[in-house]
């Protein structure tokens, strides 16, 4: 009986470990436009890189294409421009005027990116 109990305990431990590892690997929640505005440039860039990487996309590749906008120099540049447009940032001035309580995820159509 002890052997069976030990085997069950080991199996449960392995399953719990897998669940924790899976949770740790999931992408962090994207900030709202207001939260995005309240961070410095380095933090904003870091959040954008995390967001892009979380979708399995290379931030430095030029894989984004939107026929209405054309091809951007990099996925990072495309995402930055789309977030600024979505949040109402004008000419790079971090003063959010639109979608303040909405996630910056809403700025993008991730299907427009080639993986």
Please explain how this structure is put together.
The chain is mainly alpha-helical and 115 residues long. It has one domain. Helix content is 49%, strand content 3%. It contains 4 helices and 2 strands; from the N terminus they run αααββα. The protein has a two-stranded antiparallel ribbon with strand order 1-2. About 19% of the residues have low confidence. Keywords: Signal.
Briefly characterize the structure.
This protein has four helices and two strands; from the N terminus they run H-H-H-E-E-H. The chain has helices at 2-25, 33-37, 41-54, 75-87; strands at residues 65-66, 70-71. Strands 1-2 form a two-stranded antiparallel sheet.
Indicate the proportion of strand residues: under 5%
Oligomer: single chain
Unreliable runs: 5-26
Tally of separate domains: 1
Structural class: mainly alpha
Helix content class: 40-55%
Anisotropy-based shape? globular
Q: In sequence order, what are the helices and strands, one letter per element?
A: HHHEEH
The total beta strand count reads 2
Signal peptide: 1-30
Keywords: Signal
Topology:
Elements: H1 2-25, H2 33-37, H3 41-54, E1 65-66, E2 70-71, H4 75-87
Antiparallel strand pairs: 1-2
Helix pairs in contact: 3-4
Keywords: Signal
Signal peptide: 1-30
